[in-house]
C-alpha cells in the first residue's frame, strides 16, 4: 500500500499554528513512508470564504516547507485540488446512493446543518415516487439526505482507540444542499475516495464528523482510511487556539524571524514526541522519526517561550553562510551600519544569543557602532587618560603586526600588549573596547575586532590617542 495523506484547509484566513500542525504531520508521515502528500482546498462553503485567503495559505505552506506532491498543473508545478472544481463527482456519487436506496430527497425545507441538537425525524425517508413527483411539480427543491443505518457506528482511531456512536445522535444527515452544493462530510469522503487517501490525520475536533464519514465510505463501497486525530492545541489561557489569536499565525512568526525549520519542529511537538525524547529535530530527522504510535490523546498547549527556545537552537545549528543570508533582510541600517562591516563575521559573534532572525539588530548594536558624536566624545575622554593611551599604543602596535586578522590571534595580540604596558583585565580590555565600540561590555573582544577589520580598528584606536598613530 502506498501511503497517501492530505491537508484540507478552508480558505477562511491565514494558517495558524494549530492548523499548520496538521499539515506538518501529514507531510512528514507521507515522506516517512515514501508516500504522497496532497493539498485539497475545501471551498464549497462560499459564504465563509475570504478573498485572497487561498493565496496566503499556499504562501504559508511553501514557507513552512510542507510542499504537496500532486494536483492540477500550474506554471510547471502543482496547484491544490479545489472542491469547487469537483462538483460533477459529488453529484454522481449522490446519484448512486439515491439509486441504491441509501439516500433520498428531502422536501422538508430544513437542512439542520450547524444547528446543535438537531435530529431529523426521517419524514421524507418513506415518501413514495408519486409523492416525490408531486413535490417536484410544486417547485420544491429538495436536499439529499443519507439514510443512516441502524446500530452503533464503530470507528477505530489510532490515537483514541475504538469509539462508538449511536446513529440517533445525528439522524439522517444532508449530503447535498438544495442548491446542489455538497455538504462538508460528503465532499470529504467523495474526495478521499477519488484521491485514494489511506490515512486521515487531523485535529480531534473532527472526531465527531468521523461516524458520518465512516458510514459514507461503507455506503460507497470504499475501504475506510486509517483515522488518527491529533489532540487539541490550547492557548496560554487553556482555551482552544484559533485563527483569531494573531501570535500563532504563521505569517507573524515568519515576520518575527522564526526559521521555518524551527516552526516545523515546534509544531511537531504539539501532541507528539520522538522515540528517544529528542526535541530539536531537523525536517529530515522529523521525517525519519515521525509515527502515529507516539501521538498523545491529551490536550497540548501552544507555548511561545518553548517555540523561542526551539528557534534559538535551530539558529545556533545553521551553517554560518546560510544564517547570514537569512538575517540580512532583517538588518535595520538605521540601527546597525552593516555596510561597513563583515556581516557574516558579525553574525558569528552573536548567533548563540539569538532566538529569532529579527533580534539581529538588538545584538549587533551592542558592538557595531558607527563613527559619530557619541563615539567621538568617548574617544576624546580617552585622549586625556595617560594610562589608557599607553595601553592603546601597545595594542595598536601588536595588532598592526598580526600576519592574519582572526579572533584568536587578535585576542593573543591584545594580551601580549597588556604585558608590554603592564595592564591586564579591565585596565587592558576596557580602553580598547571603548575606543573601538564606545561600549563598556560586549561579546569577546577578539571576535568584535575581527568584525570591524584591521583598518577600521586601527583608525578608531588612533582617534583615541592625543597624537594618533602617525608618529608610531
Summarize the model shown:
With 472 residues, this protein is α/β, with parallel strands linked by helices. The protein is 42% helix and 11% strand. The chain is built from 19 helices and 14 strands.
Notes on the structure:
The chain has 472 residues and is of the alpha/beta class. The protein has helices at 17-32, 53-64, 87-99, 129-137, 184-194, 210-219, 250-255, 260-268, 283-289, 304-317, 320-327, 343-350, 360-364, 373-383, 386-400, 407-421, 426-437, 445-452, 454-463, and strands at residues 4-7, 36-41, 73-74, 77-78, 81-82, 103-106, 143-146, 153-157, 161-165, 174-176, 199-203, 226-230, 233-234, 300-301. A 3-stranded parallel sheet has the order 1-2-5. Strands 6-7-10 form a 3-stranded antiparallel sheet. α6 (210-219) links the parallel β11 (199-203) and β12. α1 packs across α9, α8 crosses α10 and α15 runs antiparallel to α19. The termini are far apart.
> In percent, how helical is the residue content?
40-55%
Which geometry do the CA atoms define?
Answer: elongated
Given as residue ranges, the uncertain stretches (5+ residues, pLDDT < 50) are none
Largest sheet: 3 strands, parallel
Number of helices: 19
Q: Largest sheet, order of strands side by side?
A: 1-2-5
Overall number of strands: 14
Distance between the termini: 79 Å
Amino acid at each position: 500500500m502506498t501511503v497517501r495523506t492530505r491537508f484540507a484547509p478552508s480558505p477562511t484566513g491565514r494558517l495558524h499554528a494549530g492548523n499548520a500542525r496538521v499539515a506538518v504531520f501529514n507531510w512528514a508521515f507521507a515522506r516517512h513512508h515514501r508516500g504522497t502528500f496532497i493539498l485539497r482546498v475545501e471551498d464549497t462553503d462560499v459564504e465563509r470564504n475570504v478573498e485572497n485567503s487561498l493565496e496566503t495559505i499556499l504562501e504559508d505552506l511553501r514557507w513552512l516547507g510542507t510542499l504537496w506532491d500532486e494536483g492540477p498543473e500550474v506554471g510547471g508545478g502543482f496547484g491544490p485540488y479545489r472542491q469547487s472544481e469537483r462538483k460533477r463527482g459529488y453529484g454522481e456519487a449522490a446519484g448512486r446512493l439515491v439509486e441504491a436506496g441509501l439516500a433520498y430527497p428531502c422536501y422538508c425545507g430544513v437542512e439542520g446543518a450547524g444547528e446543535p441538537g438537531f435530529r431529523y425525524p426521517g419524514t421524507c425517508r418513506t415518501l413514495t415516487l408519486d409523492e416525490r413527483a408531486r413535490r417536484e411539480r410544486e417547485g420544491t427543491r429538495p436536499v439529499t439526505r443519507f439514510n443512516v443505518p441502524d446500530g452503533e457506528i464503530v470507528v477505530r482511531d489510532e490515537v483514541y482507540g475504538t469509539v462508538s456512536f449511536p446513529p440517533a445522535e445525528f439522524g439522517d444527515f444532508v449530503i447535498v444542499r438544495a442548491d446542489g452544493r455538497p455538504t462538508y462530510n460528503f465532499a470529504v469522503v467523495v474526495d478521499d475516495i477519488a484521491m485514494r487517501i489511506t490515512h486521515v490525520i487531523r485535529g480531534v475536533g473532527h472526531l465527531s464528523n468521523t461516524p458520518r464519514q465512516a458510514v459514507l465510505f461503507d455506503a460507497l463501497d470504499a475501504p475506510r482510511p486509517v483515522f488518527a486525530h491529533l489532540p487539541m492545541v490550547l492557548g496560554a489561557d487553556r482555551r482552544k487556539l484559533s485563527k483569531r489569536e494573531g501570535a500563532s499565525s504563521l505569517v507573524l512568526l515568519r515576520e518575527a524571524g522564526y526559521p521555518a525549520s524551527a516552526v516545523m519542529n515546534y509544531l511537531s511537538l504539539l501532541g507528539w514526541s520522538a522515540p528517544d525524547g529528542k526535541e530539536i529535530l531537523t525536517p529530515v530527522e522529523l521525517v525519519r522519526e515521525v509515527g502515529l504510535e507516539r501521538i498523545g490523546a491529551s490536550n497540548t498547549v501552544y507555548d511561545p517561550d518553548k517555540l523561542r527556545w526551539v528557534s534559538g537552537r535551530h539558529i545556533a545549528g545553521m551553517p554560518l553562510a546560510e544564517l547570514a543570508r537569512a538575517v540580512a533582510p532583517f538588518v535595520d541600517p538605521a540601527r546597525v551600519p552593516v555596510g561597513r562591516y563583515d556581516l557574516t563575521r558579525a553574525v558569528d559573534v552573536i548567533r548563540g544569543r539569538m532566538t529569532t532572525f529579527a533580534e539581529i539588530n538588538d545584538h549587533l548594536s551592542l558592538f557595531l557602532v558607527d563613527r559619530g558624536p557619541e563615539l567621538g566624545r568617548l574617544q576624546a575622554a580617552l585622549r586625556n587618560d595617560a594610562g589608557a593611551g599607553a595601553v592603546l599604543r601597545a595594542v595598536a602596535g601588536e595588532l598592526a603586526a598580526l600576519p592574519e586578522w582572526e579572533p584568536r590571534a587578535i585576542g593573543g595580540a591584545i594580551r601580549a600588549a597588556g604585558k608590554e604596558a603592564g595592564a591586564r583585565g579591565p585596565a587592558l580590555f576596557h580602553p580598547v573596547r571603548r575606543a573601538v565600540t564606545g561600549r563598556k561590555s560586549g561579546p569577546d573582544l577578539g571576535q568584535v575586532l575581527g568584525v570591524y577589520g584591521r583598518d577600521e580598528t586601527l583608525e578608531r584606536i588612533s582617534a583615541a590617542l592625543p597624537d594618533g598613530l602617525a608618529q608610531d
